[in-house]
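Sequence only, no structure available. Ideas?
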Amino acid sequence: MSNPHPEFRLRLPDGGPVARGRLLDEKGVNGSQKFVLLAGSPIRRDVVPSFEKRAASAHRFRQKLIDDGLIAESATFPGYLEATEDIPCGSPSSAAAIVLGRNSSGWTDWKDDSEHPLGDFVDQAGWGPSRTWLVRGPHLVGIDTVKDLWLSGGWVSLAVERLREGIEPGMSKNRIRSLVEENYESATHTQRVRLVDDFHFFLSRMKLGDTVCTTSNGLLYVGEITGTVERFVSEGGRSYLRRPVEWQSIGYPYDELPDEIHQSLSGQHIVIDITSFQALVAGLGRSDEELADAVRDTTGDPSVEIAALAARREVELPEPTEELAEKLLAHDVEWLCEVRDLLSDEQQLIFYGPPGTGKTYLALELAKFFGGGPEQVKLVQFHPSYAYEDFFEGFRPQEDLVSREVAFRLTAGPLRELADLASREGNRNIPHFLLIDEINRANLAKVFGELYFLLEYRKQSVRLTYSGDDFALPRNLFVIGTMNTADRSIALVDAAMRRRFAFVELSPRIEPTSGLLRRWLEREKRDTEPADLLDALNSRIVDPDFRVGPSYLMKKGVYREGGLERTWRTKILPLLEEHHYGEGVNVEQRYGLRSLRAVIATSPEAGEPDLS
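Reply:
I predicted one. Tokens follow.
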């Protein structure tokens, strides 16, 4: 009987010759569909350095074929090897790996004459772009499921003991939900929701060619799904859904994995779609050169963006420039570089100081510079009634646009929105900034909730209070807060929060704030008297938390007719009246313009305290 499948082709790298093969209906011992590499097919002479470790079985099979003479020097294709006769292989991926000398997904790399991938010709549910999954092995007494069963047997499984017969690949999520509701009555609502997701992923979303990961004893193992799902009953009577998998030969230690994969591993679901980290998984065990070669093999275009290379790059904040220092009127670039280094190391930073020291302005400008524009910056302002539901997620009343009925729906807050944006494919190497103005005015433990933990442990994830999702803070999300020390002392911020943030003081007594007004006046070509007055004023204020910042005097209105007197009377003196409330201090006499101008006129040392 003739083979019903068409002939498939695989072009070798750099515009090389084309190998040929056919899919077989026969299946291997683990359920994977076999593939035959046709005689005369060219084969790459060299293999990539990681091939022996990542695909030991394919590497051994290739070497045995060479030793047995089934692969030999090619007379037709100089510089290549050649299949001397038809070679049956355990799967399309195994055949592609032999031809290319590296790991390969045969379901997408083998194509017909019209460039349609091999996977299009196999009956299965949900064919489409390949995805990456994490499946956790069950804990059985005395058995390491992953090593003793999955890796050695070449499959992955999911327990379905209480599901009735008749479940099928490709079933809709709604049908699966009905079965779970019927067969798992004693489970809690949350447990049933998770079971529906797990069964739907395993039955209907997974497909040939998808990548699957699992963990055992501190190692991450990676493989490729090579067959359709089937129901299997073990010798002990346990019922499973099972899929054949071609596992790589090595495991990757946890401490060598990227942060994003760490975050996925700390979640609680059994089956997790980690396609957003597909490029990171693809890069495990490969050098940058191998990844570049793999892209050239697939696309033939070396200019194509290499997702795996981009994903493994560290998030870098740009170096501050002289132009930035001039724009911000910083006293030198080194101070800005120190702020950059603190953000790079800690990822959370707070500017603190008296009012008017430019904390919010500086935070905004630095965030836009480091993030590459305002699109990556979101600002929120804390206040005493601000809550977790406002900040992260919670149920809020919303009107249905059709029925006009109002119902409570789970709504994302600014942190959740920014985190989702920062974690999207293509955004992970772009810094994103959340600015929290007046961070110490809210009840921080109430606002942050379980997110407190994530600020310190970025590699971990937590189960969210409302949605129940596993959530982690992206590595490219930075937090900058501002704190007005005249509103509430920094000492009132609890130790847990102080441990999670770096603190940078902005105060009239130190740079870059102390000389900021004078530098601004010089740039604006204005008289420096306001700077002299401010220095004299602050020299008379003993408590550094209540000294006055320069931003009150860096506005155009101050320099209109009578503007300085008006600003001093309506902005600055009221601050000091509140500070000295109940002390019997004559604020006008001590801090008024007439008094300060007299000091400046009679003494060159305007900065000396005059507390009489």
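The chain is about 35% helix and 20% strand.
Hope that gets you unstuck.
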